[in-house]
Specification:
Length: about 100
């Protein structure tokens, strides 16, 4: 049985199992005050792309909100549509025009 020392908490915890599991904990307790992204080699990107969500509203409101989302820099727009094909076609046409 090996020992795992948690420096941040000031505890020593017994670790049972294979030496691979014991050695896997090494990098985590070596730098306990570091964010995980630094342990994995640093930040990969500064921003994480996401989508702009438009809830089901009146067609004009959805088109106006879509224009706001595009103005804010979003590339992907998620539309909450109804179970009505005619209404959905009108919404998509208005949104495309607003973009």
């Amino acid at each position: 049985m090996g020992l795992f020392t948690n420096i941040a908490m000031g505890q020593t915890i017994p670790v049972r199992g294979q030496r691979h599991a014991q050695s896997a904990a090494g990098p985590l307790h070596a730098c306990p005050c570091q964010p995980l992204y630094k342990l994995f080699g640093g930040a990969f990107r500064k921003l994480i792309p996401f989508f702009y969500y438009i809830p089901d509203k009146e067609i004009g409101e959805m088109a106006a909100e879509t224009a706001q989302g595009v103005k804010k820099g979003f590339n992907t727009i998620y539309l909450k549509l109804r179970n009505d094909a005619d209404h959905n076609v009108q919404v998509v046409a208005a949104v495309r025009q607003a973009i």
